[in-house]
Sequence to fold (286 residues):
Amino acid sequence: MARPRAASLFMLSDPAWRSKIFTGGWLLLVPPLGWPALLGYRQALSYHLFHATDSALPPWRGQLGTYWCNGVKSMGVIFTYLAPSYLLLAIVLLSRGWRPEEATAWLAVCFVCVPIVSTLSLPIAALLALQGGWISLLEALGLFGLFAVLVFFIPAGFLRVSATGRHLAAFNLRRVFRLIRREPRAYAAAWWHSTWISLVGHIPLPLAPWGVTWAYLAIIHLFNEVLHRAGDAPGSGWYQTLAADPRLAESRAFGLSRMTDASEARVRVLELGRFGVPLPRFRRRP
Fold:
């Protein structure tokens, strides 16, 4: 079964985990750079989980350009998966006489400049089309349903990238569907826990950049557990080491606790039942 506590706290096995999460958080404040770079960083983390590397988390130093380029490729995977929903909406709108306006162009520019919210462009476009009378409520619900189904398969596509190191492998739909058929409960559990982790990571303003970065790392660990369970992991690495760490054993506790990270520093953890949130430290110890 899924190990959400291990996924949410494994980063403590890296002595530099705080600075690496903070770096990801600061980059998110630079929209055109941050989200693609963080997507590329997630791919590098998948490599660390299944290969022998010096640290549990990938380094940022000297790799930003590589992460950004790989992140743009990851965006290509995401929007290729979502393309049928965009195409269907466009066909319906154009067939009913709709033509792009200046407001449409400005909205597109906003999504390009702030790519982290670009995955919401289809739901927003559908809502605007519904409000404008271009589509019916039933058609809007159908688009939302199609969008949700496509989103459901995206992580499985990225697991093929983890297994092969190639973005084009995400489109090997036969292998993608086979992975889900082999581990349906594990895949559904990864989605369930990821949803809650993502929600917790995005809520705590003004700490959302820290929270989003932490959530992304936890979600990558959760879904790559499915790859490991299916026997498709490309090798052994930090995943095996982390699996044997007693600090990451499952817990049902709620409240604040303390743990020791790889640098022997004390870390406050917000325990939320099946998973825990490592909290940032704002003051140096005397």
In short: The beta strands are 254-260, 266-272, 275-278. The mean pLDDT is 92.
